[in-house]
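Reading a protein record of the kind used here takes only a little practice. To see the layout at work, look at the sequence and tokens printed below.
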Amino acid sequence: MIIADGVDMREVALGDAAALAAAFVRNRAHMAPYEPTRLDEFYTERGQRERIETTLGDRDAGRTRQSVLLDTATRELIGTITLQNIVLGPLRSAGVGYWIDRARTGRGLASAALAETIRVAREETGLHRLAAGTLLDNLASQRVLAKAGFETYGVAPRYLYISGAWRDHRLFQLLLHDDPPSA
């Protein structure tokens, strides 16, 4: 599915391992302030293949939906967006996380991917609520969430271990509807 001029979004596949590894290597310094410290294996095709296998298993179990963003001309992988920790029943909630290649930031790609993911969450997955968290100083991601209608609902002290320390996060949520859970 084309989500923006020159950008396609589709579910992750096992064949994406090499492209994901290359994208993570290319963006390692760019993402370091926002990501947990990664072992070197993470940046290899084998490491990404193992992650994708886990993601696909979680997808089949209904716990995760991950999509990749691709340049339509070059087919270069330029980001991902994930619905994770999907819980159905009376909660009907998931977390959302995303990243965009350093050379593509500021072009509305995260916003476009998030808009499509919100649609999928509501219409295809039947979720009621999405949650996201950002480091307190990650203003770019906070703008993406605000543009999509997410509201701030708090700060979680020492929420994730990033860059060698437990870091506070600003918490966001988006209520998708007030319909009762589907059967």
User: Anything to note?
Assistant: The longest strand covers residues 151-162. The two ends are 29 Å apart (CA to CA).
